[in-house]
Amino acid sequence: MKLEVYFERLKGKKVLVLGLGVSNRPLVRLLLRYGIDVIGCDRTPREKLDAEVLELERKGAKLHLGEDYLEHIAGDVAFRTPGLHPDKPELIALRQAGTVITSEMEAFFEVCPCPIIGVTGSDGKTTTTTLISEILKHAGHRVWLGGNIGTPLLDQAGKMNPKDKVVLELSSFQLMDLHQSCHIAVVTNLAPNHLDMHRDMAEYVNAKKNIFLRQTKDDVLIVNHDNDLTEGFAAEAAGKVKRFSRRERVDGVYVENGTICRDGTEVLRCEDILIPGVHNIENYMAAIAAVEGMADDEDIRFVAKHFGGVEHRIELVRVKDGVSYYNDSIASSPSRTIAGLRSFPKKVILIAGGYDKHIPYDALGPEIAAHVKLLICTGATGFKIAAAARAVEGTPEILEIDDFYEAIRAASARAQDGDIVLLSPASAAFDKFKNFMVRGTEFKKTVMEL
């Protein structure tokens, strides 16, 4: 088996695991199972470690902790956590000393015995990945869903067989130094994002390209024709290129007279899609292109009518006193918030702001003027979003409330029967929360307590 061969090769070597977050913990357990010498390195001090990491230590992993966790270490192989930039000086020093830098995702690509369908982009990754998985499952395939969504799959590879399908959501951080590409690669769209981690937009775009750059002539690249950056990828593809477009007929999937068509054949009426928003029409188009030949149109239509969406993505939390509260905490960029705002037929009360990824908010201003009746800005980027809104005509009333919970309560106090309150931050969550999921959960909890 590929998995056993891979880990047998590591026996007798000193292995560093850089970062002990969710994706790397199963990796450490696998390494220990094969009797490999493991040093787990993490910024978290010992007194703040959770029980799972301490259990890894009891099973034999050595720990190197604290702010200097990347210093004074040496090994034959190092597994990089996705959030650690490959060109960080400490990693460059390791390479110069002869350490091979890899990742849990790189290892999975090497050992996976079945076809990999990968999805990346600035927005829509999770929904598109989930749609592909749901359609394939309804078509009778055995599907493994993972990557940047769900659970890491490396330790599950031994249970997979060549007829299975793997569907991965892939972030720019996972793709940055990935030396393999997906058999079917989907790029939903590209817009400025994660510029707090990437040197510039060019590095971000180049990271995304790794999803297809090492494809063969037998592989498939699916791109959003309406997005200039993703359409530009087509010229570099080694295999077949499929396009999807909401704006015009293309060789692939497009919308005509309110119906999604594939190469001239009607597949799905847009009105039959349960989850709201034109961006979800695009997500379905991408999924329809990806499952071609592996699922029937009936499978697509069934999922469209029954799939209620992914948590934290324009999720209806409750209706109280005639006011509808929606959780769109996944919206960590302006483009995603814009898509959320356009999903509703009326102006909303918008709660926005969070961690600063150093991306521009200019494009958000006109959308706020067009789609928002009251803007409540919170968090580290609140003042930037407020400034973007004030820079255009038709600006709604703006409240700047730093406290997240007070912002929710203020929205509730101002809302009237028939209003929509939307949490769509256009920013990451790290200024106040561990991740967007915790932020969304706290929003829902607060709304339910109103």
Topology:
Layout: H1 2-10, E1 14-18, H2 25-33, E2 37-42, H3 51-58, E3 62-65, E4 77-80, H4 89-96, E5 100-103, H5 104-111, E6 116-120, H6 125-138, E7 143-147, E8 165-169, H7 172-175, E9 184-187, H8 201-209, E10 220-224, H9 228-233, E11 240-245, E12 252-256, E13 259-262, E14 265-269, H10 278-290, H11 297-306, E15 315-320, E16 323-327, H12 334-341, E17 348-352, H13 364-371, E18 372-377, H14 382-390, E19 397-400, H15 404-414, E20 420-423, H16 436-449
Parallel strand pairs: 1-2, 1-4, 2-3, 4-5, 6-8, 6-9, 7-8, 9-10, 10-11, 11-12, 16-20, 17-18, 17-20, 18-19
Antiparallel strand pairs: 12-13, 13-14, 15-16
Question: Which spans have pLDDT < 50 for at least 5 consecutive residues?
Answer: none
Helix content: 25-40%
Number of contiguous helices: 16
Largest sheet: 9 strands, mixed
Count the beta strands. Answer: 20
Strand proportion: 15-25%
Query: What's the mean pLDDT score?
Result: 94
Considering the chains and any ligands shown, give keywords for the structure.
alpha/beta, 9-stranded mixed beta sheet, 6-stranded mixed beta sheet, 16 helices, 22% strand, globular
Compact overview of the structure:
With 450 residues, this protein is an alpha/beta fold. The chain is 33% helix and 22% strand. The chain contains 16 helices and 20 strands.
